């Protein structure tokens, strides 16, 4: 048995952030764009701090121009996920970046994403669903626009709505109206919180947004009463341990609270966030979790079953995926 072959669910993955570097180099070459500055000699993404990470991320995304570029990107990302044992994934997509916030353009991108997901399922057996995200630092009015675009462009695999971006900008309460639109449309609700900012960020999200899941949420560990609340209210944390350690949210795997949160009864799942930028995979995260806390196949199966309980998919898909974690 290798951790690579263990079936996995991933609920927190940014499409652009999961772009394989070799794919970005290929697209850049096709478009005659020199992006050599953003790669190490070994071909991996090159950055030394969070500010530079954002610049490299933006540069890589600059060559993605059309729906078909994004369709090809999705297929490349899903191929890597499937190679790491992922059988079900939910991927964050941003209408602000795919079509510039225009409804008709967004529909074109969604159609391309559906084709890409169909192709990946046929080739690799992986099930993919999408979560539309607003960008926090773009502000509440833009978020309402994004929620309306999402609600007015239903798609078979579009199952959720969330919020990413700069966690220190605005408050969760500022986005109540946007999330109300998404919830009214029947979308599952999640939001980033408690990664860069502390426990108050998680508490405020719980108080004001209709979430069943929180992206990251790990700094809730700073407040034992909040940890108790997460367990009692059965709010899933989409935990990204390799990402957190790489960018310094926690100084080491040993200091990461994933296992502690699970022991306290908080529902958790394991995801990778922006894996090639952090030089991780789902396999390497499983290896580090097993090494650090001694998790067994049973522990991972339990965590994957928990993830599927909170997945935003239909019941038929949920049952089919759950059968893989027996």
What do you see in this structure?
The protein has 326 residues and is of the alpha/beta class. The chain has 13 helices and 8 strands. The chain has a single domain (8-325), classed as TIM Barrel (Alpha-Beta Barrel). It has an 8-stranded parallel sheet.
List keywords for this structure.
TIM Barrel, 8 strands, alpha/beta, 45% helix, 326 residues, 8-stranded parallel sheet
What is this entry, summarized?
This protein is an alpha/beta fold. It has helices spanning 21-30, 50-61, 67-83, 103-124, 140-151, 176-184, 199-208, 224-232, 241-247, 258-263, 282-293, 297-310, 315-322, and strands at 8-14, 86-93, 127-135, 158-164, 188-193, 213-216, 236-239, 268-270.
Compile the SSE list and pairings.
Elements: E1 8-14, H1 21-30, H2 50-61, H3 67-83, E2 86-93, H4 103-124, E3 127-135, H5 140-151, E4 158-164, H6 176-184, E5 188-193, H7 199-208, E6 213-216, H8 224-232, E7 236-239, H9 241-247, H10 258-263, E8 268-270, H11 282-293, H12 297-310, H13 315-322
Parallel strand pairs: 1-2, 2-3, 3-4, 4-5, 5-6, 6-7, 7-8
Helix pairs in contact: 3-4, 5-6
């Amino acid at each position: 048995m290798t951790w690579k072959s263990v079936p996995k669910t991933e609920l927190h993955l940014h499409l652009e952030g999961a772009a394989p570097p070799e794919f970005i180099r290929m697209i850049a070459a096709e478009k005659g764009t020199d992006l050599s500055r953003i790669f190490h000699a070994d071909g991996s993404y090159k950055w030394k701090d969070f500010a530079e990470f954002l610049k490299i991320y933006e540069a890589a995304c600059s060559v993605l121009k059309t729906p078909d570029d994004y369709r090809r990107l999705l297929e490349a990302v899903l191929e890597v996920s499937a190679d790491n044992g992922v059988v079900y994934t939910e991927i964050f997509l941003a209408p602000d970046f795919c079509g510039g916030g225009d409804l008709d353009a967004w529909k074109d991108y969604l159609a391309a994403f559906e084709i890409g997901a169909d192709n990946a399922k046929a080739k690799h057996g992986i099930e993919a669903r999408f979560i539309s995200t607003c960008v926090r630092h773009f502000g509440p009015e833009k978020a309402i626009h994004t929620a309306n675009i999402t609600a007015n462009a239903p798609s078979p695999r579009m199952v959720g709505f969330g919020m990413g971006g700069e966690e220190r900008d605005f408050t969760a309460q500022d986005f109540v109206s946007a999330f109300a639109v998404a919830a009214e449309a029947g979308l599952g609700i999640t939001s980033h919180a408690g990664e860069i900012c502390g426990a108050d960020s998680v508490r405020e999200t719980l108080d004001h947004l209709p979430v069943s899941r929180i992206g990251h949420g790990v700094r809730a560990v700073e407040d034992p009463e909040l940890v108790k609340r997460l367990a009692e209210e059965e709010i899933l944390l989409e935990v990204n341990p390799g990402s957190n350690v790489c960018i310094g949210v926690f100084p080491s795997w040993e200091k990461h609270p994933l296992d502690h949160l699970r022991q306290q009864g908080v529902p958790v799942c394991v995801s990778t966030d922006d894996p090639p930028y952090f030089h991780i995979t789902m396999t390497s995260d499983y290896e580090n979790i097993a090494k650090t806390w001694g998790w067994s196949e049973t522990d991972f199966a339990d965590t994957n079953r928990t993830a599927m309980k909170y997945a935003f998919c239909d019941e038929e898909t949920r049952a089919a995926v759950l059968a893989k974690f027996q």
